Model the fold of this input.
Amino acid sequence: MSETSGTTVGIKTFLRTSKLRMCLESLTNHAWHSVIVADDGPIDAKRERMYAELAERLPLQLLRLEFDTGLGAGRNEIVRQCQTDHLLMLDDDQTVPGNIGDLSEVLDEASEIGGVSCIWIERDGLKCTACDISIDGSRLIKECRADHEIRRTTAGQRYVVFDFIPNSTMFRTACLRDQAWDPIYKIGKEHLDFYLSHKKLGKWRFAVSMDVRIGHHPEGSSKKYARFRGGKRVKVSEKYFLDKFGVTEVIEGRKFIDPQHGGKG
Done:
């Protein structure tokens, strides 16, 4: 079991009680400085019981946000409450492995890295949407180059540097205070906005560990949750993103591990 006692965990959650319980249960196998949950959904009796139970097993700090505050604002509130140098930011449908603390090795040894993510284990296999970002005229292109260098920590952990990495990331809190999330976004494009803003800032790089793999369980969400995840609100976010950065479209190319394109592992 790798060391995690100096790390805060942050989870922005909305509606998915069973998935959040699964995520929190996986965290009980580690000793954390604190676990901050930013909840902007309705908290019913079932959810209250879950929080009361898990607070006995985790150093849980619950942030009860206004309904539908959104991803950007919710994650920013977690950053404001964080008191440690490292912040592991998760989605509520993820489960952490025993070696999750190994991500800190990369941050400890590579001072330019602001955050390091994991490879995802999904029902159909491995996935990692890490890539580089470039702008060609009015097009923004997300594409993983074929010539990425595999670096190693002193302990031998392999990692690769990218512009854009998945949200299962151990960040330097200082990196997030330099550039946090745009609170305008409720859902959709907040993640790409964050990494493009960091690329424009030019201070921090990001990486993916090839040796830490986290469970990702996106299937089985409720119809109510799906309504908030899609539809008009996503289109609003997409238009806001395009206007903000002066581009007309986002081109999705090959990712680091993309089963459809036979990616690396």
Observations:
- The two ends are 23 Å apart (CA to CA).
- Confidence is low (pLDDT under 50) at residues 260-265.
